[in-house]
């Protein structure tokens, strides 16, 4: 009989030999990954590599087919996922608010875990203060009463961070959070994440992206995956390199780092002489 380790309460995420199968196809093939408190991870890899699937484990949404997934010291499959999810903040730019609720109300939906304001639920004054403090944190102190349809994409992105933080999660997941932002809004958003890491050093984050330019300078660790397996994982400065990224994307890509930020440029492949 194989020995089954108990969850390590010190780890925020601990994936051990995780495989995942969907419709007869194995999508992940033995993922090992440990994330400790206060670390800021980037999850990188080409389309279809398995990033969203891994993020689904981190968010206590999916069960592995085999192996173990421990989130915040609790094992998926042994605990009630709904309760665990309340301790995880999720920033998803595809978050669809349909009604004209204010930035403050959007943040308060993070307490009810809903998209819209819940009927017959009224926040306490402490909860409103908390929502306002989170709006201040993301630089929206002057935009509390602005309604969602009139907010810019950049403001919406920052409001969604405030929404994710309002319930004081220990883990924050960011799923391609800068999608759809123009270059200025993207820079403001990344600055917000850098400020967050300064003001909340104990918070752990995992950010998924396809683009190295979208990594905040405060990123400490990275895991690069391709074809459902880890290509490299560890300190960001050692993982986000020309060699690893070129291998994962199966294309020669030159990775640069300047002022803490990463950049990537695809090199042209040699063409056969005609
Ligand atoms: N419901 C499903 N049924 C079968 N295969 C699936 C299903 N969902 C995802 N897959 C496959 O699993 C693999 C990993 O998908 P996943 O969405 O995790 O990748 P990803 O790295 O997030 O991709 P992208 O960058 O395109 O969002 C892909 O090959 C995908 O086609």
TrEMBL record:
Belongs to the ABC transporter superfamily. This is ATP-binding cassette domain-containing protein. It comes from the Bacteria. SUPFAM superfamilies: P-loop containing nucleoside triphosphate hydrolases (SSF52540). It comes from Leucobacter iarius. Keywords: ATP-binding, Nucleotide-binding, Transport. Gene3D superfamilies: P-loop containing nucleotide triphosphate hydrolases. PANTHER family: METAL TRANSPORT SYSTEM ATP-BINDING PROTEIN TM_0124-RELATED. InterPro entries: AAA+_ATPase, ABC_transporter-like_ATP-bd, Metal_Ion_Import_ABC, P-loop_NTPase. The keyword Transport applies. Residues 13-252 form the ABC transporter domain. GO terms for molecular function: ATP binding.
């Amino acid at each position: 009989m194989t020995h089954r380790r108990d969850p390590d309460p010190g780890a925020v995420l601990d994936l051990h030999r995780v495989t995942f199968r969907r419709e007869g196809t194995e999508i992940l093939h033995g993922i090992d990954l440990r994330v400790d408190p206060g670390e800021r991870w980037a999850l990188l890899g080409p389309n279809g590599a398995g990033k969203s699937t891994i993020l689904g484990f981190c968010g206590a949404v999916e069960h592995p087919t085999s192996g173990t997934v421990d989130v915040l010291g609790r094992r998926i499959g042994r605990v009630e996922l709904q309760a665990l999810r309340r301790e995880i903040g999720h920033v998803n730019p595809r978050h669809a608010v349909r009604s004209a609720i204010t930035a403050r109300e959007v943040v308060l939906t993070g307490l009810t875990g809903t998209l819209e304001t819940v009927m017959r639920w009224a926040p306490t004054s402490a909860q409103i203060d908390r929502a306002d403090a989170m709006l201040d944190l993301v630089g929206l102190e002057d935009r509390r009463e602005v309604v969602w349809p009139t907010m810019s994409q950049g403001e919406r992105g920052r409001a969604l961070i405030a929404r994710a933080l309002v319930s004081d999660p220990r883990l924050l997941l960011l799923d391609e959070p800068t999608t759809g932002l123009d270059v200025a809004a993207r820079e403001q958003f990344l600055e917000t994440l850098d400020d967050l890491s300064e003001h909340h050093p104990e918070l752990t984050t995992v950010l998924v992206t396809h683009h190295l330019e979208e990594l905040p300078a405060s990123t400490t660790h990275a895991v690069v995956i391709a074809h459902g397996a880890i290509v490299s994982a560890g300190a960001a400065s050692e993982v986000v390199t020309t060699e690893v990224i070129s291998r994962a994307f199966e294309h020669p890509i030159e990775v640069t780092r300047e002022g803490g930020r990463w950049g990537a440029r695809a090199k042209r492949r040699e063409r056969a002489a005609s």
